[in-house]
Amino acid sequence: MTHAIRFHAHGGPDVLRWEQVDVGEPGPKEVRIRHTAVGLNFIDVYERTGLYSSKLPTTPGREGAGVIEAVGSGIRDFAVGDRVGYAADRGGAYAEARVMPAERLVKLPSAIDDRSAAALMLKGLTVQMLLRQIHRVRKSDIVLIHAAAGGVGMIAVQWAKHLGATVIATVGSAAKQDAVRALRADHVLTLEEDWVAQVKSITRKRGVNVVYDSVGKDTFMQSLDCLRPRGLMVTYGNSSGPVPPVAPLELSKRGSLFLTRPTLFNYTATRSALQRAADELLDLAARSVIKVHVGQTYPLQDAARAHRELEARQTTGSTVLLP
């Protein structure tokens, strides 16, 4: 019998339970994956707490890697034994196995191991969306990346530097600065200091072209103050809590700013869009242009402990759960 982490009510990490589940056989154009590694993300926390709604009971988890162990009818591009990874638009990854639509999978190159792939798919595709689609980062750009010591942040710093941008990064504490400096960020600030004043000093009061902010409530308004006229604010996470309602006039009086709140799956909605983004991401990872930092691993059964430490800001880089 297959096991999975499930929760029957929204709440703290203690609602996560290790239970037996019936995975079943894949239907038409579906495959069954035996997971070898599962990625941990803040979206899993949002789903567990009820910030993002889900039908209960449910299994969280949006990214994983594994081996195909069964295929349904109508499958041409995948076969039993293929190594695959995915970023899913719904939960289900916190399981030893799951059934998924084949069109949402990508094959993994031999140069990328399963743990790296599980830490890379949702986070890396998110960065591809941020830096290559929402705002195509150029050599002349100065970008501000919050939570730079996290899984998405570390990938974003490396990719932005590869594109030639000047990178100003923020971290939650001084203890995390060295890890981000090692990624060649030009400036690494902490949220414990007056980082807005430092950004203005670094940019000679001109401001940055774009802010990438997954922190949310605690950094949103200050981030607007870091932008140059007609700059772009990209808010894509809520690790400190959701951003309160913002009057459009706030954007006007700060220099006709632009604001977006993207969702990855709007940018990878078609098979071709997903494959293009994944091809670019996996190529950079296979060539070590982007190096995945798996800062910690936990047995999948210990998902509750992983959630506690993620929420307490005790993790660095990506976290992987091992079935």
TrEMBL record:
Keywords annotated in UniProt: NADP, Oxidoreductase
InterPro entries with a match to the protein in the record: ADH-like_C, ADH-like_N, ER, GroES-like_sf, NAD(P)-bd_dom_sf, QOR-like, Quin_OxRdtase/zeta-crystal_CS
CDD domains tied to this protein: QOR2
Record field: catalytic activity: 2 a quinone + NADPH + H(+) = 2 a 1,4-benzosemiquinone + NADP(+)
SMART domains named in the record: PKS_ER (SM00829)
GO MF terms, alphabetically ordered: mRNA 3'-UTR AU-rich region binding; NADPH binding; quinone reductase (NADPH) activity; zinc ion binding
Domain Enoyl reductase (ER) positions: 11-321
Gene3D superfamilies: Medium-chain alcohol dehydrogenases, catalytic domain, NAD(P)-binding Rossmann-like Domain
Pfam families registered for this protein in UniProt: ADH_N (PF08240), ADH_zinc_N (PF00107)
Keyword DNA repair: no
The keyword NADP is assigned to this record: yes
EC number: 1.6.5.5
Gene Ontology cellular-component annotations: cytosol
PANTHER family: QUINONE OXIDOREDUCTASE PIG3-RELATED (PTHR48106), QUINONE OXIDOREDUCTASE-RELATED (PTHR48106:SF13)
Protein family: Belongs to the zinc-containing alcohol dehydrogenase family. Quinone oxidoreductase subfamily.
Protein name: NADPH:quinone reductase
Organism: Povalibacter uvarum
Lineage: Bacteria, Pseudomonadati, Pseudomonadota, Gammaproteobacteria, Steroidobacterales
